[in-house]
């Protein structure tokens, strides 16, 4: 019995390359993606240098000169990791410290070394600058393209087909009231039939809308399926897992970046109930990972690379919401596993550069970074906290309901034939969405425009149905309009919004998790904004007709403007987003950066906190944690408390009836012995002991390092044969003169593996795994090796204690 491979049985999971084929049955699901190891480009250079080692018998090595001791020249590939393995944070950090110490000591020797030292220190900031520029540019491109393609479903601009509806009408001489009806923009019925009125024109527009929606979504799912199966979904659960130290090769590669950017535009334009905000975090992390390859410091160190990815995630949220500070807090609160102070500053800089780049591109033509930027001017009253808290309760209930329903649906997709037909699923969901969306103007418009409309504070010139109040201009003071009686337009809008709410609530459950890029921020905000606007209008009308009631009389006199329905929409959006993701601090900061309203922090905080409490009371996990668990990723949640009284000896392996632990002795095993251990087991490392009898621990050696070192020594070192003795000590053991050359492998031995005694409480062991990011921990008794605990064992143990299936851990 030995160290369980931290990802999975490597023999079973690396049997070849899964070519992505045209039939839906060939897709193997991981988080709604499929495994495709055929894209070799996404392997980092280190991985390619060693010939892409996937199993012991695989490919050759680009070795170095003749080796007697690997301390002299490190081998390419030694110290790197297999796919679907967890990195060793402790080893990576110590390697970076050694590298830094060496550069610092050399910098005193020559001017060139000093310049190298300065450039090494500066490289992190340069990398952040590049990530910010690239992420901001891609976000601008996605925004502009999605805006144009969304409008393309309804009509085309005669002045130039590349203009969207708004840009098309900028040069028009139409009045402000008719600004959406300029002659340059023609609906499909006007273009084909010559007129836009009547039943036939309506049917033609309806048909074109559904056709474009199906075309966009089918193109998106076929591109994802054919070129980059990892480009689907939001990507945040996988990024959380990668940041915790897991390796998923290709998930942040260049093909994923290209396909995700293109298909995100297509998916958003198709009118499906999804957003671009979550996928923008994935896009920014892809940018970060690709740009890391320009700098040796980040290319060769997995822990350093994860610091960069944390900052890239902040840049992603910064451009998604135009909220740089909210992005940094989102990365800290929601996705990052290890977030030192240096990463905080760099995240701040990357988010700043990304937001500045997007502002320079100005995708919406209004000098704002998002479509739904609003400014409210009226203060809120203390009594309004009651409806705000009601919205918080609604947000928590909706969040808990959504998570349960969506996870149940995704589990069904995984375990039934449904998962074998991703293209058909996308086609059916898009068809249903488009057919239901077109008759209702609030579902026909893009979700971002809908949120913008709902957040809007009605002014004198607003022509929206939501602003069709009965005007009494005698009581108008300046820009502020008093609370007025709702006109017929408002009542129509309320009915349409109620229907839109029901549709959004249910259709989003089936949309999130399909094989297209799909974010959850915007649909959640839309649900909350609709509920908030409905409640806001209800409170406004109540205050108008019953201003003499005791609760209104003190602060809402007749003719005053005291209720802002748009503010209720904003608070509702925050509550629903909080209920689904369980964000708190970052959510409030993102919302006030979106709206520019510092005085509304208290309502937002009240709603966000209430929604979190209510949702937590029903189910502890946010949507991303629930998807991590559904997909069996090896993620040790830092927020969960371990409260059980078990000991290390209860969790370690081998158990009582298991075969003994597979170990390597320090100076008595031959190359053939070690090779047979490697071929017969699938563990990712082996303890090294003084002898089988004493079982006293010397260190720990990784399977991958052993494979590379032995293979290289056979090729490059004279006299190494199957009967050569392998030794891990400083001095070679005494052997008869006729024996073949010996192989010294001390340099690949970890002489300070983490050990605990068999009586150590598991809560301490779990804490060590969380805080140090360990892969494995050895268990001793009176200095003798007893067993081993891996991260997978810890996760299985936690799952068992929570009455879950322990075999669900690690890619079910």
TrEMBL record:
It is a multi-pass membrane protein. Pfam families: CBS, Voltage_CLC. The chain crosses the membrane at residues 122-142, 199-224, 257-274, 280-296, 308-332, 382-401, 421-438, 493-514, 520-539. This is Chloride channel protein. Interacts with NEDD4 and NEDD4L. PANTHER family: CHLORIDE CHANNEL PROTEIN, H(+)_CL(-) EXCHANGE TRANSPORTER 5. Keywords: Antiport, ATP-binding, CBS domain, Cell membrane, Chloride, Endosome, Golgi apparatus, Ion transport, Membrane, Nucleotide-binding, Repeat, Transmembrane, Transmembrane helix, Transport, Ubl conjugation. It catalyses: 2 chloride(in) + H(+)(out) = 2 chloride(out) + H(+)(in). Belongs to the chloride channel (TC 2.A.49) family. ClC-5/CLCN5 subfamily. InterPro entries: CBS_dom (IPR000644), CBS_dom_sf (IPR046342), Cl-channel_core (IPR014743), Cl_channel-5 (IPR002247), ClC (IPR001807). One of its GO terms (molecular function) is ATP binding. SUPFAM superfamilies: CBS-domain pair, Clc chloride channel. Residues 652-716, 742-808 form the CBS domain.
